Amino acid sequence: MRSRYHHSSLLAAALSHNIKHTFIHYLCLQSDLIYTNSHNGEKNSHRRTENIPNLLIVNWTQNEVGSFPPGKKITIVFVIGGPGSGKGTQCSMIVKHFGFTHLSAGDLLREEAKSDTEQGMMVKNLMHEGKLVPSELIVKLLLKAMLQSGNDKFLVDGFPRNEENRQAYDKIIGIEPELVLFIDCSKEEMERRILNRNQGRDDDNIDTVRRRFEVFQESTLPVVQHYEKTGKLRRVDGAKSADAVFEDVKAIFVQLNTQANQVSSVSRAQSNPFKRFLDLFCGCFGTQEATN
User: Fold this and answer.
1) Record-annotated residues binding a ribonucleoside 5'-phosphate (predicted)?
2) Which residue of 133, 161, 261, 290 sits 20 to 30 Å from the alpha carbon of 59, by its own alpha carbon?
3) What is the rounded CA–CA span in Å between residue 267 and residue 259?
4) 95 is in an annotated binding site
């Protein structure tokens, strides 16, 4: 057994300049995890990543990433669909026609998994096993990418995947999506597409694909139902060709642009005191003419 003195020493050392790795080591001992110190080059493929606390995963490798300026209008659209439903293809077309920045939660995680960090290796293991990555980490990766883009219109692809994702998004970013685009496609069609695309991705083998389908049905469909109840959901048939699907998608975004322009015009008019005075003056003058 490890002595209390050993644990106390670790906590004391956590107050020094090496706080990050020492504190992780202490928590791993408490949780009976296997800790890998990348500075010493030690590797262990049997780490029990599923038990690492979410707060630890997010905070021991990332500082706060910042936030949007107060009052800045940010447009966010979630794009949801099963694996192989064609989300990425539709997002590329939307970006080309409507000027959004496309952020794929999956791509951000795969990029993180390539990094030579404890967090990157943890993400890689979870994805290979077909398990979900902690929500706080995904949201902070999304927020960081948004702030770095310089844009104010975002397509968030493959997110939220479950209620925990949605709640973490509300807590950390808190900007209500303008709409949620759901690309509806059958399991058989999605499986056929994934197995035919042959992109060499680690998470495209048949067993992992089927686990991803199960996770989608159990965790993501309730999110779809939530947004349907709130009136935010827009559903398109993803079984059609990519061009045919985009015709439906384009109509949705044209309507979104029209509504945004109308709101912007009203806001500009309300923020212009001289314009309000003219409207009031003309209104009064028109009333007098009608009376005479």
Assistant:
1) 110, 131-133, 158-161, 201, 212
2) 161
3) 12
4) no
Q: 43 a known binding residue? A: no
Query: Would you say 160 is a known binding-site residue?
Result: yes
Binding site annotation covers 201?
A: yes
**Segment 116-125 mean pLDDT:** 87
Q: What percent of the chain has pLDDT over 70?
A: 65
Nearest-angstrom CA–CA distance, 7 and 201: 41
Q: Is 84 annotated as a binding residue?
A: yes
Per-range mean pLDDT, top range of 17-21, 53-57, 59-63, 210-214: 210-214
The confidence score (pLDDT) of residue 16 equals 41
Q: What is the residue whose two structure tokens read 């004391």?
A: 12
Question: Is 110 assigned to a binding site?
Answer: yes
Domains parsed from the chain with CATH numbers: 4-59 (no CATH), 75-266 (3.40.50.300)
As a whole number, the mean pLDDT across the chain is: 75
Binding residue per annotation — 73? no
Helices (DSSP H) in the chain: which residue ranges?
Answer: 4-13, 19-30, 54-59, 87-98, 105-114, 118-128, 135-149, 163-172, 187-197, 206-215, 221-230, 242-270, 273-291
The verdict on whether residue 4 carries a ligand-binding annotation is: no
pLDDT of residue 173: 94
Q: Is 131 annotated as a binding residue?
A: yes
Residue 130 is predicted with a pLDDT of: 76
Confirm if 180 and 232 have CB atoms less than 8 A apart: yes
222 annotated binding-site participant: no
Task: Check if the beta carbon of residue 242 is closer than 8 Å to that of residue 89.
Answer: yes
166 annotated ligand binder: no
Using left for φ > 0, alpha for ψ between -120 and 50, and beta otherwise, residue 200 falls in left
101 belongs to an annotated ligand binding site: no
Q: Can you give the pLDDT at residue 92?
A: 94
